[in-house]
Every structure is written in C-alpha cells, then in structure tokens.
Amino acid sequence: MMKNPCMILLALALVSFACAKAVTSKDAVRFDSDMEAEQGDLLKARGEPGQNDQSGERDNMDFAEGKSGGITRFEKVPADEERLIKDMALILQEKMAADYPAGQIRRGAHAKTLACLQAEFIVEPNIPAELKRGIFEFPRSYPAWIRISSASGTIQSDKAKDVRGFAIKIMGVTGERFQPRDEEKETQDFILMSYPIMPLGTVKLFHDAVYYTTKWSPLVFLSRLVMSGNFHIINELRKAQQNQISPLDIRYWSTTPYLCGPDHSVKYSLIPASPLKSSLPPLLTDHYLAENMEKHLAAAEASFDFMIQVQRDPVRMPIEDAGVEWSEEESPFIKVATLRIPPQAFRTRERKELAEELSFSPAHSLSEHRPIGGLNRARVEIYRSLSRFRHQQNNKDLIEPRK
Ligand code: HEM
Predict the structure, then answer these.
(1) Does some domain include residue 82?
(2) Distance between CA atoms of 290 and 17, rounded to whole angstroms?
(3) Beta bridge partners of 170
(4) Residue 399 domain flag
(5) pLDDT reading at 334 higher than 50
(6) Whole-model pTM?
(7) Distance 299 CA to ligand 1 centre (A)
(8) Ligand 1 centroid to residue 92 C-alpha, Å
(9) pLDDT of 88-122, one tens digit each?
(10) Candidate of 104, 383, 386 to mutate for ligand 1, largest count of ligand atoms within 8 Å of Cβ
(11) I want to staple 286 with a disulfide (CB 3.0 to 4.6 A). Which of 30, 100, 157, 310 is the partner?
C-alpha cells in the first residue's frame, strides 16, 4: 500500500490535515487587538467547563415542530435520519456547554462573527417567469441584515485557514410561511458559504463527522473516510479552507437546495460585484478579515449579485447529496437580485451584540422558498434547538429584527 504514491500522498495529506485541525482547535487562538479582547477572556475562562446543567435539555428536544410542512416530492428520507439528527444536536449542544461558560455561549458552528452589516436586497425587474415566486415575484427592495462568520465551531484567529459563512436575513417579507409556528414571521433567510459544495453532503456523513471528531478525534474520522474510499471528501475539505483576502471580495454558495415555487428546485450563489477590491495584508493579523472589510466600507459601498441555479436533471443534480455540484454549463446561475451594502462602521459593541442575538436558519422562510434535502431537514431541527439553547443559557430572548 505505502508504495502507491497516492497513498503516500494521502497519508501525508491526512497527517497534515489532522494536525491543522488539532492546532486550529486548541492552540492558534491568541488575540492582541483590544476590540476582541473579550473573546480572549472567553477563551481563558474555557478552563472552567460550563456549569450548564443540561441533563433536562436532552428530553425536551422537541423535534415534532419541525415536521410541519411535510416532505416534498423531490425528497427521499433515509430510515434512521431522525435518530442521526437528534444525536448530532445533542453532541453539538454538549460541546457548546463544555466549551463556553454559562451566559457566554456561542454558536456551535460559525462561532466567530467577522461582521454584522446592514444591507438592501433589491429584486431585479427582468426575472425569467419560472423564477417569479415568493420574494422574487415583484421588483422591489427589502432591508436586510448580514452576518459574516468563520465556519469553525471554535473562535480562532483569521490566520487559520477556514471556510467563511454569509447569512442574509431579509425583513418585511409577507406570504405563507414554511413553518407557521416558527418564531420568525416576516423574514426570509439565505445562508451561504465560501465553497461550491458541502463535502459532507449527506446527514449520515455529517453526523459521522460530528460524532467522531467530537467523541474521538479528527484523525479517527479521516481514517474512516479513507477506509470507506472517500478520500475525495478529505481533499474537498482541505481545499475549502483558505486564507481569503476579504469576505466582501469572494463568492458564496448555498450548497443545499430550496424550492422556488412548487415545481422547481434551486440553489443560490452570491457573486461579488464591488468596484473596490481589498488586498491581502503583508502580515496576516488575528482580525485581518474584519480590518479589510472596515477599510472597504469606510471608503465605499460593497455589492453582490444574488444568483439562482435551477435543477435540470434529478440524477446529475441531486437533492439528497450537497456534496455534488450542479453543473453550471448545464444550468447557469441567473441573476435575480442585487445585495447592496452601504458604507458603515460595524466594529462596534452594538453590532457584536446584535450578531450574537440574531438567529439565522433555513427554516426562516416562505413556503415558496422552503429548504429541501437531508442536510436542510437536519439544519431546520438543529439550528432551532441550538439557537434556543444558546439564547436560554445567555438569558437572551430570541429576536426578530424588523429593520
Ligand atoms: C447537517 C449539517 C449542518 C449542521 C449540523 C450545521 C450546524 C450549524 C450550527 C449548530 C450553527 C449555529 C446555529 C445557531 O446557533 O444559530 C450553524 C450556523 C451556520 N451554518 Fe451550518 N450546519 C450544517 C450545514 C450547513 C451547510 C450545508 C451550510 C452551507 C451554507 C452551513 C452554513 C452555516 C452558516 C453560514 C452558519 C452561520 C449562520 C449565522 O450567522 O448565524 N451549514 N450551522
């Protein structure tokens, strides 16, 4: 086996990846800028595992709520899916409780806020008829909040390569809700990340990643991927982690599918369109991404084209595996809106607090844009229960911004 160059390469990649993971999760966190000093305190306090008694939580992880809205004709649900979803939610909740002191619980993933920005979502007039659904039915402008984040479940320096998250919350949205009993009544969330696919594309794969990396170590999960012939996933996970120049200058993808009316499944993408571009600082700092955005938004607005890609073939463009990219040759992305981010100061205490209080979820949606596919079914449940857990533990109410 070791004679095979790929395997040697594989072993090398594995070891380097595992080491990177281990390092990033424990040692790379040293802060020097005063604005984020508090995050340093948070980490220093980590020594004292949360006093959060969560034994009661286990039982009232009521998932029944999420079941409203049923399953669409585009979806196939594996038999043990609900068990895997509940298990993931529990493991992530236990990790959050262990990682942070009571009252300072952060998100179980995408824990570090890079920016919380005010924006405007402007729907295009000339959209193809098949896409004129829900919020895209009429050309108009909506107010929006954006939270830009680093994907790791641990707050770490920007020097650590990572995937970046871009969550949009559009407000003043009316129409039939995907989940009428959901907390949010007039918002439409779009949640994207800085890579075209989610390499852990099924609930089973994602569950195993959460289970083995939390209960054992990243190396155990990686070796399981190798043994099951999924080396390509390791490669994709490694490629997805980058030192980007500025979160305002990179592309994002939803990776998971959504409905656009009853007849179409779609995916989203955000393409940067700002005339002004940042450059990589000669020396990366712990917060160079926020610093680059601050410089950009002090000088000029930023903007993105919001794009939709329609599923044209159910086999080559699957719903139930977010690890498969839909070919843009076969189905090009179509621009349906502009996201305009005006010049603003965002490195303030108010914005930091708002970023912690906001909740983004695929469930915050009109039924015309409802989330579909395994990962989204899992996220609907997990984001709800974990967002409630962190708000509860922080003695904060769930809020729905109106402007
Ligand atoms: C089963 C699969 C997944 C699990 C278990 C998971 C877990 C989580 C959790 C626990 C949070 C924090 C939620 C909160 O406390 O408010 C989160 C946030 C986030 N996730 Fe996922 N996630 C999954 C799949 C994805 C996918 C496919 C994407 C691709 C776009 C994604 C992008 C994000 C982003 C951008 C955020 C930050 C949202 C914010 O700013 O509040 N996640 N995820």
Answers:
(1) yes
(2) 26
(3) 144, 188
(4) no
(5) yes
(6) 0.87
(7) 31
(8) 11
(9) 999 999 999 999 998 999 999 999 999 999 999 99
(10) 383
(11) 157
Pocket of ligand 1, candidates 96, 99, 110, 400: which has the most ligand atoms within 8 Å of its Cβ, to mutate? Answer: 110
Q: Tokens 């940042």 appear where?
A: 278
Judge contact between 212 and 225, C-beta under 8 A: no
The structure tokens listed for 211 are: 């289970």
Sign of CA dihedral 38, 100, 212, 267: negative
CA–centroid distance, residue 383 to ligand 1 (Å): 7
CA 280 – ligand 1 centroid, Å: 27
Query: Can you name the residues that pair with 188 across neighbouring β-strands?
Result: 170
Contact 312, 330 (CB under 8 A): yes
CA 379 – ligand 1 centroid, Å? 7
**pLDDT higher than 90, residue 69:** no
Decide if 172 is inside a domain: yes
Q: Which residues form the domain of 238?
A: 2-393
Please give the distance, rounded to the nearest whole angstrom, from the Cα atom of residue 109 to the centre of ligand 1: 6
Question: Ligand 1: which residue has its CA nearest to atom 10?
Answer: 108
**CB-based contacts of 165, cutoff 8 Å, min separation 6:** 110, 147, 148, 149, 150, 151, 191, 192, 193, 194
Ligand 1 center from residue 151 Cα (angstroms): 8
Tell me which amino acid residue 89 is: A
Q: Domain with 221 in it: what CATH number? A: 2.40.180.10
Angle (deg, nearest 10), helices 218-227 and 203-215: 140
Q: Tell me, yes or no, whether 398 lies in a domain.
A: no
Residues with beta carbon inside 6 Å of ligand 1? 88, 92, 107-110, 147, 149, 165, 167, 191-193, 198, 206, 254-256, 322, 359-360, 375, 378-379, 382-383, 386-387, 390
Domain count, the chain: 1
Name which residue sits closest to atom 21 of ligand 1, judged by CA.
109
